[in-house]
Amino acid sequence: MEPASPARLYATVIGALLVILGILGFFYTASFDRLGDYEEALGGLKANGWLNLFYIATGALGLLVAGASSRGYSLAIGLLYTVLAIFGWGSGALNLVIGLLGLAAFAGTVRKRSWPVRERGKRPRRSKPRAKPAGKRA
Asked: How many folded domains does the chain comprise?
């Protein structure tokens, strides 16, 4: 499991928020007619069956990977939701906020290195064999 980080917090909080929004959206409309046919829900947010499923799927994915690969999730969801906001699919302002927060969480999380890093020009330190004290023989 990853240590606490901005990306892990993002994956957990945004994942839960998206699942809740997707489920609540089905109470307003469950229409799967066309992608562009929206109904107003929750004070100005747009909802339709496809958008509700998309929110549930991306939110559930965030909850699933929150402990393992939240940095990659933050980058992927950040880029995806920012692009969706630019093209105007779904709730533009909500998508833009989710996207920009994802990119910020990705940038704010330090990547772990899985191999030892050596400074340039420095040789690895070699250990010398220990000398036996004088006068004692084994």
From this structure: 1
CB-CB contact of 45 with 24 (8 Å): no
Q: Which structural domain range is residue 50 located in?
A: 6-108
Q: Show the tokens assigned to 117.
A: 């890093």
**Given pLDDT bands bounded at 50, 70 and 90, which one contains residue 115?**
low
3-state SS, residue 45: strand
Q: Is residue 113 part of a domain?
A: no
Confidence of residue 105 (pLDDT cuts 50, 70, 90): very high
CB 13 within 8 A of CB 111: no
Ordered alpha helix ranges (H), the chain: 6-28, 49-65, 70-87, 92-108
User: Counting every residue, how long is the chain?
Assistant: 138
Residue 133 has pLDDT above 90, yes or no: no
Q: What is the pTM of this model?
A: 0.74
131 is a domain residue: no
The residue type at 94: L
Q: Which residues contact 48 (CB under 8 A, 6 or more apart)?
A: 25, 29, 31, 32, 33, 35, 37, 38, 39
